[in-house]
Amino acid sequence: MATILRQITIWFDLEREMSPGLQDVEAFLGVLSEFDPELVRALELERVNGRDDHPVAAMWNLLAVALYLRRVKFSELLGELSRNGDLARLLGFRETGPNKYDIPSDSALSRFHMKLKGKRYLKMVKDVFERTVDALAAENPEFGKNTALDASNVRTHAQPPRKARKEEGKEVEAKPSSDPEASWSVKTKLRSDAQGKPRKETECTFGYKLYAVADTQVPAIAAVDVTTGKTSDQELATPMLEEAQKNLPEGRMETTAMDKGFDSKENVEGAYELDIAAIIPVRDVPENLEKLPREDREERLEPQSNIAYDRYTGEVFCYAKGNGEEIERRTMTYAGFEAGRDTHKFRCPLGAAAQGGCKAFASCSAGSAGAQGRQVRIPMETDSRRFAPIYPKSHRWRRLYNGRSAVERINSYLKEVLGLERHCLRGKDAIHLRVLLASLTLNIRTLIHLRRARETEREAA
């Protein structure tokens, strides 16, 4: 209960926050300093024989805190720094006079940004992010247990390529994009019109894709990656789960919820090999499912069996003669998953009443099930999507899938509050750096809230 209350409180505080004050920035930098000494040391060693107009630590602090300050463009960031001497002092810039500081020029900040998005330092920024995951896992024993994976489009500042065409009788030449690494991504969403009828909408974005594995209770990210826009979601599911599992304590990650874009046998079974239960709705279900005749929907468990399952929904049924000698079809009761056998158990829907209420009881009742009626085991390999480790028709599956909204809320926060898309950046490495800084900002803010909540609980005790 404490975890849920904390999660609700954290989201309330994160979404209502205005631009932070100096005390908030100081707290942010204090937590950041726990994770970035290796990065700062490497930057200082590289500069040892070069110009040292602006301290390396101050330059890194400036970029690391930029999104928290809601200053997503360099011009906005430097404008704030020139007006706020206290902020410049807090970040570590040199004082040149009373309340005057030697702040970097736009070109100096751009060069430092260029260095950070290089392969070596980009990896080190990612290490800083991963250390925040370690700290969150240590602070909250439930962090990373139930997760959600989602993909979100991130636009590039560049224009897409232009094909040669005729316009008003004139020939317009083809023109390549100024961001050759970017590509188009297409996402189809189901929305309701004014009359409430569902309709499909296609959204095309030129740029990149952000993949994030987030906790469903605490607003924080366990793993993040950036790919070009045309990357298929199917390619990234298992690698992202492996990355999140590596960042979290061994055995911590138990479930992950994903949308239909990740639905595949390979993703369900790949997650299961990692000891993670994938919560993914099946997408190849006909829209007119309820109108299909039973013979087109059902398959017998065995050729002569009276047990059948729906090949679209995974529901399991038994057929037996009722009191009026007519054939009755009953939905069997789900009885859990046996991990040691990789099978799902289903029991007679009548239970103890089966003996007097079912004509087939004598032939169905067997073994330890006895008076409770027949018990059926269906192997996961029958259909690993319909009979995934957490049965898709169970209450637990629905509860865990509802947690997927957490990662959508996080993506929205990164874009709308931290300004993930409001930039002038081009190239995959630049976007990757921005995504890492945004994820780092969210994790540190959440870590601060969790620590404050723990202190409050300790004082109250």
> Count of DSSP helices?
16
Assign the structural class, choosing from mainly alpha, mainly beta, alpha/beta, alpha+beta, or little secondary structure.
alpha+beta
Unreliable residue runs: 1-6
Q: How large, in whole angstroms, is the Cα Rg?
A: 28 Å
User: Helix fraction?
Assistant: 40-55%
Biggest sheet features: 6 strands, mixed
**Strand content range:** 15-25%
Let me know the average pLDDT: 86
Distance between the termini: 17 Å
Molecular shape: elongated
What features would you describe in this structure?
The chain is α+β, with helices and mostly antiparallel strands and 461 residues long. The protein has 16 helices and 17 strands. The strands form 5 sheets. Strands 3, 6, 7, 8, 9 and 10 form a 6-stranded mixed sheet that branches. A hairpin with a 5-residue loop joins strand 6 and strand 7. Helix 2 packs across helix 16 and helix 8 packs parallel to helix 16. The longest helix has 33 residues. It starts with a helix and ends with a helix.
